[in-house]
């Protein structure tokens, strides 16, 4: 104990006390640094606060998907049948099965009416509504109406592209209004067949009789 209080050595006592004081100060500084580091670490952990979880109101809510709506495109529907087909909604023609007939051959004439519109419509194709004629120039030498002018209506429904046809075998005989007898046959030569459906008339189909 006496050596601690009374330093023994070749130097004076003040030298040893200064050394001891410097050593003590160094120890205190080291301890102070250690305490500061430990406090900083502990204090840092204590100060670190967990970020508050976003509240339900602040949480981003997904935008609801847009509900698909029906498109504005028109749906394909079948147009219901309306009243009578207009003349400009029909295509009417007459066809002779040959362009030239020998003396022993009779012309076969076919009337054909087709719905050329985009809708379904109705038309009377009964005997009273149809007529086939054979002409020589401007003269009517035979008509289906001369001997069969009437008959009950026969209304048919025609879808777009559908049609009706009537075929007549003409025996080359002449006819006139009232269907008189004994008019005889036509002469050889050039003729043309035409057709009518109501007020709609066809073009001509030309042929030659030998």
Question: Quick gist of this model?
Answer:
By secondary structure, this protein is of the alpha+beta class. 20% of the residues lie in helices and 29% in strands.
Question: What does the secondary structure layout of this molecule look like, with pairings?
Answer:
Layout lengths: L1 H4 L7 H35 L42 E7 L3 E2 L6 E8 L5 E4 L5 E7 L2 E5 H4 L7 E4 L4 E7 L19 E9 L2 E2 L3 E5 L1
Parallel strand pairs: 2-11
Antiparallel strand pairs: 1-3, 3-8, 4-7, 5-6, 5-9, 9-10, 9-11
By CATH, the topology of the largest domain is Immunoglobulin-like
Principal-axes shape call: rod-shaped
- The secondary structure category is alpha+beta
DSSP strand tally: 11
Number of helical elements: 3
CATH superfamily descriptor of the largest domain:
Intracellular proteinase inhibitor BsuPI
Tell me the CATH architecture of the largest domain: Sandwich
CA-to-CA gap between the ends? 166 Å
Number of domains: 2
Query: In terms of per-residue confidence, which ranges show pLDDT below 50 for 5 or more consecutive residues?
Result: 1-5, 47-77
Radius of gyration: 59 Å
Largest sheet: 6 strands, mixed
Helix content: 10-25%
Q: Let me know the average pLDDT.
A: 81
CATH class of the largest domain: Mainly Beta
Q: Topology as H/E string? A: HHEEEEEEHEEEEE
Strand content: 25-35%
Question: What would you note in describing this structure?
Answer:
With 210 residues, the protein is an alpha+beta fold. The chain folds into two domains: 46 residues; 123 residues, Immunoglobulin-like (Sandwich), CATH 2.60.40. Helix content is 20%, strand content 29%. It contains three helices and eleven strands. The strands form three sheets. Strands 2, 5, 6, 9, 10 and 11 form a six-stranded mixed sheet that branches. A three-stranded antiparallel sheet has the order 1-3-8, with no helix packed on it. The longest helix is centred in the first third of the chain and has 35 residues. The termini are far apart. The N terminus is likely disordered.
